[in-house]
Amino acid sequence: MAMSVVNAEVRVGAGVILNTASVVEHECVIGDFTHVSPSATLGGGARVGARTHIGIGATLLHLATVGDDCTIGGGAVVLKQIESGVTAVGVPARRLR
Ligand SMILES: CC(C)(COP(=O)(O)OP(=O)(O)OC[C@H]1O[C@@H](n2cnc3c(N)ncnc32)[C@H](O)[C@@H]1OP(=O)(O)O)[C@@H](O)C(=O)NCCC(=O)NCCS
């Protein structure tokens, strides 16, 4: 979408939405059917699985990983790793349930 930035050596799966003003930094990997919401930022080398929702304004620090079928809440900051199937919110992002 408009103003989204995808930097060098990024791999994006099928059916992914990179929404308004999202930033996907160098060498990120994004799985199929994931949604990166407006103004979310994926730092360099971050990896996101399939069918995951990265909430509005959320940030993944460089090299952070988020699994398949996750929901990352709006404004969350993922420091290192979120396992598959988890909803996580806050700074730093922690499992909601
Ligand atoms: C994470 C999310 C999916 C949780 O939704 P939910 O299951 O309906 O959760 P609730 O609203 O019942 O909130 C549950 C608790 O989590 C907290 N919470 C929810 N979202 C939060 C967030 N993003 N950051 C911090 N805390 C959050 C609530 O304050 C509540 O805390 P409490 O139990 O102490 O009162 C949702 O709040 C969210 O952030 N969605 C992102 C939507 C988005 O980015 N859309 C973009 C469209 S383009």
Describe the structure.
The chain has one domain (5-95): 3 Solenoid (UDP N-Acetylglucosamine Acyltransferase, domain 1), CATH 2.160.10. Helix content is 0%, strand content 34%. It is built from no helices and 16 strands. The protein has strands spanning 5-6, 11-12, 17-18, 23-24, 29-30, 35-36, 41-42, 47-48, 53-54, 59-60, 65-66, 71-72, 77-78, 81-82, 87-89, 94-95. It has a six-stranded mixed beta sheet with strand order 3-6-9-12-15-16, with no helix packed on it. A hairpin with a 4-residue loop joins strand 15 and strand 16. The radius of gyration is 11 Å and the shape is globular. Coenzyme A (COA) is lined by residues 19, 37-38, 55-56, 71, 73-76, 87, 89-90, 96.
Features of this protein?
34% strand; five-stranded parallel sheet; mainly beta; single chain; globular; UDP N-Acetylglucosamine Acyltransferase, domain 1; binds coenzyme A; six-stranded mixed sheet; 97 residues
Secondary-structure blueprint of this entry?
Elements: E1 5-6, E2 11-12, E3 17-18, E4 23-24, E5 29-30, E6 35-36, E7 41-42, E8 47-48, E9 53-54, E10 59-60, E11 65-66, E12 71-72, E13 77-78, E14 81-82, E15 87-89, E16 94-95
Parallel strand pairs: 1-4, 2-5, 3-6, 4-7, 5-8, 6-9, 7-10, 8-11, 9-12, 10-13, 11-14, 12-15
Antiparallel strand pairs: 15-16
The structure holds coenzyme A.
CATH architecture label: 3 Solenoid
Ligands bound, unique: coenzyme A
Please state the structural category: mainly beta
User: Count of helical segments?
Assistant: 0
- What best-fitting shape do the alpha-carbon axes yield? globular
